[in-house]
Amino acid sequence: MIETSVTIRIPFHHVDVMAMAWHGHYVKYFEEARDALLDRIGYNYLEMRASGYVWPVIDMRIKYIKPVELGGSIRVQASLAEYENRLKIEYLITDPSTGARLTTGYTSQVAVHLESKEMRLVSPDILFQKLGVAVP
How far is CA 48 from the centre of its chain? Predict the structure, then answer.
């Protein structure tokens, strides 16, 4: 459906003693790609708040396939997989020079009404409008 990608160079402060990207930083890499995807659909975190909703991450999975070394670059692709009841975004991290698959994963987020703090079981109409799809 909708996807985007970002390229990230691995800096010194992201690596461990083995000069490999520390596993915890992959959450940040996913976030950078997710931000770009949300910007692409015109519903970033500021726009979410303005519409009366916050969208916390409620589930995440990361599968590490091959490591990335200090100074290496990665391409992080984010694809919108589900939107009717939650935002499920799938990620694919590849080596931009070889296309080799390095990491896969996903995040799931749900809409929570900002004032009432109630979780929505169906995504709010504003998301469907931003995606240009019919409201169910």
Answer: 15
What's the pTM value of the predicted model, to 2 decimals? 0.95
Give residues with Cβ within 8 angstroms of 56, minimum separation 6: 109, 110, 112
Phi, psi for 106 (deg, rounded to 5): -155, 160
CA dihedral 26, 32, 33, 37 (to 10 degrees): 150
Q: In what order do the strands lie in the sheet with 87-94?
A: 3-9, 73-82, 87-94, 101-109, 57-64
List, for residues 43-93, the tens digit of each pLDDT value. 999 999 999 999 999 999 999 999 999 999 999 999 999 999 999 999 999
Question: Which parts of the chain are beta strand (E)?
Answer: 3-9, 53-54, 57-64, 73-82, 87-94, 101-109, 112-113
Residue 25 backbone zone (phi > 0: left; psi -120 to 50: alpha; other: beta) = alpha
Torsion on CA atoms 127, 131, 133, 136, rounded to nearest 10: -20
* 5: CB partners within 8 A, 6+ apart: 33, 36, 75, 76, 77, 78
Strands 112-113 and 87-94: unpaired
